[in-house]
Amino acid sequence: MGLKHRFKAIPREWRTPRTILYLFALELLIEIAALALFGIAQPDLYRTRLWQEGSNHGWNSNPNSIIYAYANYRPISTPLPWSQFVTNFNVIISVVALFVLLCKGIMYICHIFYPLLSVVIHAALIALFAVSAHAQAAPDMSDPEHPQPGAPWYITKSCGAPVRPKLKGYCEQAKGSFAVTIMLLALFLAYLVLSLYSLIPSRSSKLFPTSDTESQHERPWEMVEVTPPTPGAAGRLKSPMTPRTTAFNTLSGKIGGAGGGAKWKAKVKSKGQDKGKEPMRGPDGKLPLRHHISMGDETYQGPVGEAVKR
Question: Which backbone phi and psi does 41 adopt, to 5 degrees?
Fold first, then answer.
């Protein structure tokens, strides 16, 4: 079996196309919320403030420790949940995900959003948002005296007391950013599972496999089998005929019955009695254009005969 036949054997239809539309609508709502939350947090609306608030309660390291380390020439890196990289990365992947959603909608309308293509797209999106979720919930072990072995405090703790009231809104925004990340990750996993399920051949496709030859309705409209209405043609081979071929066959008398050709020839003969004579010239004394074209006598003599009668 060739490579072309193997690609044809891959299912291209969704098992539950209505579910895909529901997922599109749900994804659009979540991605708009994610883009808004990640865009508000950029570049540093509340990240350093939450970092400092956690340090005041002994929940994580102190932001000033980075400055002290640089001043003493000690190698140190910003903890991942408090780094600028995470903020920028979240904005980028939210824009990319929204753009991919628009492309998916267009491809679905054009019937080219195949399950195999969906597997590739959503596997990449799962990897991106898995990195984002890991970065937002990464530990902060840069300060041995105040280690943070798990997720940051705004995820694991309440935004109420003892947190300062003016940071409550920022804390809730940070919680919401992490929540929409997990929701998108779960949604892309649902896409992936549904795509893999659609790639499994159904029972009907196993019972009635698609033939290698194209079906009648899949052939080009010009290559339609036309059965000539000539008597006694039953049992003969059918030949593909285009509209142009049918027209020429009609003119030559091949279609229209056994006597069709004879009637046409008799008609042409009656209109072309001046066959063999010099063709009619125009008012300017020049030959008509059809005289210069290498055509049969019965093709242009007929119209000339009509012109003479008129």
Answer: -70, -15
Name the band, by pLDDT with cuts 50, 70 and 90, for residue 243: low
What is the rounded CA–CA span in Å between residue 60 and residue 157? 13
Q: How far is CA 24 from CA 12, 145, 255, 301, in A?
A: 18, 47, 55, 67
For the chain, the straight-line distance linking the first and the last C-alpha, in angstroms and rounded, comes to 68
**pLDDT (tens digit per residue) in 262-295:** 555 555 555 555 555 555 666 666 666 555 555 5
Cβ–Cβ < 8 Å for 195, 118: yes
- The rounded percent of the chain whose pLDDT value lies above 90 is 43
Contact between residue 90 and residue 41 where contact means Cβ atoms under 8 Å apart: yes
Tens digit of each residue's pLDDT (9 = 90 or more) over 139-162: 988 888 888 898 999 999 888 888
In terms of residues, how long is the chain? 310
**How many CA atoms are closer than 13 Å to the CA of 127, on its beta-carbon side?**
6
Q: Which long-range contacts (CB under 8 A, 24 or more apart) does 39-44 make?
A: 39/91, 39/94, 40/173, 41/87, 41/90, 41/173, 41/174, 41/177, 42/87, 42/88, 42/91, 43/84, 43/87, 43/88, 44/84, 44/87
State the DSSP H helix or E strand holding residue 61, giving kind and residue range, or none if neither. Answer: none
Q: Where do runs of H (alpha helix) occur along the chain?
A: 3-8, 17-41, 47-56, 64-71, 84-109, 115-136, 153-156, 168-199, 203-207, 243-252, 260-271, 297-309
Centre a 10 Å sphere on the Cβ of residue 123 and count the other Cβ atoms it contains.
Answer: 14
Q: How far is CA 155 from CA 148, 152, 159, 265, in A?
A: 12, 6, 9, 93
Render the burial of 67-95: b for 16+ CB within 10 Å, e for the rest: eeeeeeeeeeebbbbbeeebbebbbebbe
> Hey, is 297 helix, strand or coil?
helix
